[in-house]
C-alpha cells in the first residue's frame, strides 16, 4: 500500500508538532504492566451476569440506561443465541420506504419496506424511487439462481498427490452429499467445484439452504465432509482448513458474476418519460448520460460491478430485518443498466448475483427484526425467495432516485436540507 512522498512528509510533520521521535517510539512499544481484570463475558444472559459486566465496565448509570433500557432488560433472553458478553441493545431509527410494487416469481404485491439507518435523506430517496416504480405499475423481478458455498482447502506434499486426491474426491460426491445432508434438515449439497493451485486443492461445495441465509448451515455440513475426508481419503493432506477463502464469503470478488452466492436476482422496469420527469425532474436521455459516465468511471477505478449505492439500501434493510450485515460486502456487488427505449421511455435494470438473505434463523427472530419482517409480510418459512426479489426491487428504486438526484442537480440540496435541519422540524415532506 503506497503513499505519495509529499503526503507521507506532511503526516510526519503533523506528528512531530506535538511529540518527539523518542516519544513516538515509546507510544508504539509493548506495555508490560499488569492488564486489567478479564471482562466477565460468556454467552450467559441473566440479570446477574449482565450486572457483573456493567460493574466491570464501571460506566455511568446514564450509559447503562441508554443500552439496557427496561424493554431490553425484559427481553434479554431473546438474544441468547445471537451475542456473547451481552450488555444491552443499540437503537437505530427505522423508516418506511414505499409502497414498492413488485411483480416477481415469488414477491407479488405492494410492500412497505423497513429501513434502519442513521443517514438522513436515505429513506426519502428510496421511497421516492419506490413511488416512481409503483406509479409505473411496479418492477418485474426474477430469481435466477441460488446456492451458497463453503470452500475448504487441502495442502499436499506435491502436485501428484494433489491430483490423486482430486480423482478420489470427484468420485466421492454422492458420499459427500449424504454426509453433509445428515447435518441439516434444510441444506442440500448440489454441486462441487474443484480448483487446483500447485499442491493446494480447493473444494468449493455448493448448497441450497432453504429459507435461511445458511452460512452456519454450510459450515457445519462442510466440516462433516472434511472429517470424512480425514478418515477415509487414501491420500491424506498435510493440513486442511474448513474455509480457505475461495468461497467469496463476506467480500466482493470477481467470481461474483461467474456463479451465485446466496440468491441471484434481477429486476427491471420501463418508465414513461413524463413519469420520469414528474418524479425525478430529469429526462431518460439525461439519466442514461449519467449512467454511461458513471459506468466508465467505475471501470477506471476498478470497481467490481457497475452501480451507484447498493450498499446503502442493503445495509439498512439487512439491519432492520435481522440479516448478517457483514454480507453487504458481497451482496452489494451487481450491475445497474439504463437505456432509452425507441419510444423515449427509460429502461432500468439491476442484477445482483450475491444476495445472502434469509427469513428464518440468524437475527430474523429477534424482537425488532421479527417485527420488521412481519411489517414487510415476509416473516418465517417460505418467504426467503420473495425477500430476495423485494431486495432487488428496492435497489432498483434506489438507483433511479440517486441518479435522478445527481442528474437534476438536487443531490446536494437534498442532503443539505435533510442532514442539516438539526431537529428544527423542517423537511417533513419531500
TrEMBL record:
Xref: Pfam families: HMG-CoA_red (PF00368)
Gene Ontology biological-process entries: coenzyme A metabolic process; isoprenoid biosynthetic process
GO MF, one annotated term: hydroxymethylglutaryl-CoA reductase (NADPH) activity
KW Cell wall biogenesis/degradation (keyword) present: no
Highest taxon of source: Bacteria
InterPro entries (alphabetical): HMG_CoA_Rdtase (IPR002202), HMG_CoA_Rdtase_cat_sf (IPR023074), HMG_CoA_Rdtase_CS (IPR023076), HMG_CoA_Rdtase_eu_arc (IPR004554), HMG_CoA_Rdtase_NAD(P)-bd_sf (IPR009023), HMG_CoA_Rdtase_sub-bd_dom_sf (IPR009029)
Keyword Hydrolase included in the entry's annotation: no
CDD domains cross-referenced by the UniProt entry: HMG-CoA_reductase_classI
EC assignment: 1.1.1.34
Keyword vocabulary terms for this entry: NADP, Oxidoreductase
Region Disordered, annotated ranges: 25-45
Top class in the EC scheme: oxidoreductase
Family: Belongs to the HMG-CoA reductase family.
Name of the featured protein: hydroxymethylglutaryl-CoA reductase (NADPH)
Organism, as annotated: Thermoleptolyngbya sichuanensis A183
